[in-house]
Write a structure and sequence with these properties.
Number of helices: 17
Number of domains: 2
């Protein structure tokens, strides 16, 4: 306790901690909104239709894997270093590259939309699940443009409070429309359409925010210059680095998407609902750690420019603090789960509460992973991360299917726990060993 008292004044004044705190306030609010909206949608749809809703959302996640934050995370890493060096030309080129890649990935995702009903019919016997997923894909395409650009611009320029406001507004508007459309009787299609309508509104808001941010910081390019450079910029300039970061990020996203998608193959949609709610309830608490990872994505590259020697120490410190916090959060979710499921979700969903207990080990070791992605990108060892995750999923997916088929929901929980725990622990100790061997690293070296 004495040590904690001594450290508190330092932590309160530390710029990074203050940024994390600001983003965590917003994260807590958005998580609360998502949870509240999820409760209302679940109650309105009931277990059967909510299971369809959950599978469709996860299928959409697979379809939009190219639109995920992989390339965006890579560009944040590049922009973090360029902004630290006050390199206006590099910043402009990086944003232009992101614009061009956004158009390419959006076109590919549109093609995938046409195949979703057939895929859903093949695996779930319900083509309409693919139709519902397609609506979410369209919403993701809209969100991949100005919303992402404005978010990144606010992050690298240190406007964390404004970035937090934008994130909160996005979640609020999307889920507000989703709940409203379900409430008026549009069912699952209404829940999905709300995200598309909300994404369109936020896209316009984000465009206005970009212009405001540009006028307040001369290092950011104008929209006109961004479009012009987007036509001219060579994909080769950042493709090597951003491609591997995107692959790594999207493979990591599969850890969250695949459990629900695969469980729907062997267990009924009602049981998928219970698994989805238990998994989501634990991840709701874990999302409070998200702001740390988001900020580290820009901070580690800056740290290499300014104070490279301290990077290993800070990496270990952040990872252990996050692990301690994830342990406390997991224990908290386990304690309140029976009450939350019975009172908030309703008696029809109360059987799902017992599955929260199964995620204890998952939650404990979840926190140690918050700094892994940013560190892999900062030291340009993303390919190693890809290998680790591919091996984990290569073994884990068949094992997960087998365990789910054999033990139902409990098998899926065991599989998810093994995926995350093995990958996180191996990656963490690999990075410590690697950083011990190198006193100096170059973020974007070949």
């Amino acid at each position: 306790m004495d040590l904690i008292k001594q450290r508190l004044p330092y932590l309160r004044e530390h710029p990074f901690v203050r940024s994390v705190a600001s983003l965590q306030v917003g994260s807590f609010f958005t998580n609360f909104l998502q949870a509240a909206a999820g409760v209302v949608i679940a109650r309105l749809l009931q277990p059967q239709l909510f299971g369809v809703y959950s599978i469709a959302f996860s299928l959409a996640g697979l379809a939009t894997i190219l639109l995920g934050s992989g390339i965006q995370d890579a560009i944040v890493s590049i922009l973090g270093k360029a902004y630290g060096q006050r390199n206006k030309d590099e910043i402009s080129q990086a944003f232009a590259f992101l614009l061009k890649m956004s158009f390419i990935t959006a076109a590919v995702s549109l093609v995938v939309v046409f195949f979703l009903p057939s895929i859903a019919q093949r695996f779930y016997g319900q083509a309409q699940i693919g139709f519902f997923a397609g609506i979410v894909v369209l919403a993701s395409i809209v969100s991949s443009f100005f919303f992402s650009f404005s978010q990144i611009a606010l992050q690298i320029t240190g406007k964390i409070k404004q970035m937090t406001t934008l994130l909160v507004a996005d979640v609020t508007i999307r889920y507000l429309f989703s709940v409203l459309l379900v409430f008026v009787g549009m069912g699952v299609v209404g829940a999905m359409s709300g995200h598309l309508l909300g994404a369109a509104i936020i896209c316009v808001v984000a465009l206005l925010i970009w212009e405001w941010a540009r006028k307040s910081d001369e290092l950011l390019p104008s929209l006109r210059n961004l479009v012009i450079q987007g036509k001219r910029v060579s994909l080769k300039k950042y493709f090597g680095f951003s491609f591997w970061v995107a692959v790594d990020k999207n493979i990591a996203s599969l850890y969250f998407i695949l459990p629900v998608v695969l469980s729907g193959i062997y267990i009924a949609t009602t049981e998928v609902t219970f698994f989805k709610l238990a998994f989501g309830f634990v991840n709701l608490a874990m999302s409070l750690l998200g702001p740390i990872s988001v900020l580290l994505n820009a901070e580690f590259p800056k740290m290499q420019v300014q104070e490279n020697i301290k990077m290993k120490k800070n990496f270990i410190k952040v990872s252990l603090y996050a692990m301690a916090l994830s342990t406390l959060l997991t224990l908290g979710t386990i304690i309140v789960a029976p009450v939350v499921f019975k009172i908030i979700y309703g008696i029809n969903f109360s059987p799902g509460a017992k599955y929260v207990y199964g995620f204890l080990v998952y939650g404990i070791f979840y926190g140690i992973g918050v700094g892994l992605g940013p560190m892999w990108r900062a030291i340009n060892r993303v390919k190693t991360s890809i290998i680790i995750n591919l091996v984990t999923l290569g073994v884990g997916v068949p094992l997960g299917l087998y365990l789910t088929k054999l033990y139902g929901i409990w098998g899926a929980i065991i599989a998810v726990t093994l995926w995350f725990t093995v990958s996180h622990l191996y990656s963490f100790f690999y990075l410590i060993t690697y950083l011990n061997k190198r006193q100096s690293v170059t973020p974007l070296s070949d």
